[in-house]
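Before a colleague's protein record goes any further, I have to sign it off. Thanks in advance; the entry in question is below:
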Amino acid sequence: RSVETSPFLEKLKKKGYEVIYMVDPIDEYCVQQLKEFDGKKLISATKEGLKLDEDEEEKKAFEEAKAKTEGLCKLMKEVLDDKVEKV
């Protein structure tokens, strides 16, 4: 049940993407080998760098949110320093 409410999936569900829940260790191996099924490309929603089609409004909202939190992110990086890789 926790997989269905994962924050990784919120945007995918909102955009109407079909999601396959693969929670067993063998699933990741299978997806790496298959890469495509029934003409559809298989992509992990939990991997960094997932690219989704965005319209101009979404891009603008993201840039505004990024600008608002930039100072906080810099402060967190300074405070946490070598304890984190990315903020």
In short: The two ends are 28 Å apart (CA to CA).
